[in-house]
User: Fold Ubiquinol-cytochrome c reductase iron-sulfur subunit from Ktedonosporobacter rubrisoli.
Amino acid sequence: MIQEVDPQSEATKQRRSTGEANPPARRNEEWREEFPYPWDEDEIVTRRDTLRFLLGGSGALFAATGILAILGNLPKGPDVQAVPVAKLGELKENEWKVFDFPDQYAQGILINLPRKGLVAYSDVCTHLSCAVVYRENGTLHCPCHEGLFDASTGNVLAGPPTRPLPLIELAIEGDTIYAVKVVPR
Ligand code: FES
Assistant:
């Protein structure tokens, strides 16, 4: 409950008469003596917890990227736009192909990455919209201004682009790989 200060109370009048507007602030040391707490340990635990949180978060993001790359079975529903882009086994490691998605006015690039498998991105460079091409060193190269992206994440490695390539989610049904969704990032 908040206790209001009575301007006419004896204590208030006395403080005013002595020029003491407010009770003196309690010194930091007194406060700590009355409430002993292992502050040093608290700081260590906080930093450790923060580090754990950051590592856990980045691990979860990495896992999410993997999950997003291929959804698994083809999602169903009236809103699902599934476009067949390749057959299973069609691309050997380091092979890639360009496909139309979601329509003939936009293209994606499907790559079979060594040790990662199939990934797909919009092939439109996020700088000034030139088409990127895959290189066997695991990068996507934009020839217009030497933009470079990591093919396993779509993130920018070098050059003028500042945003990663949009991811294209894939799904599999039977022996067919479908593009199902563009994920802007
Ligand atoms: S358009 Fe790709 S780097 Fe400029």
About this structure: Confidence is low (pLDDT under 50) at residues 55-68.
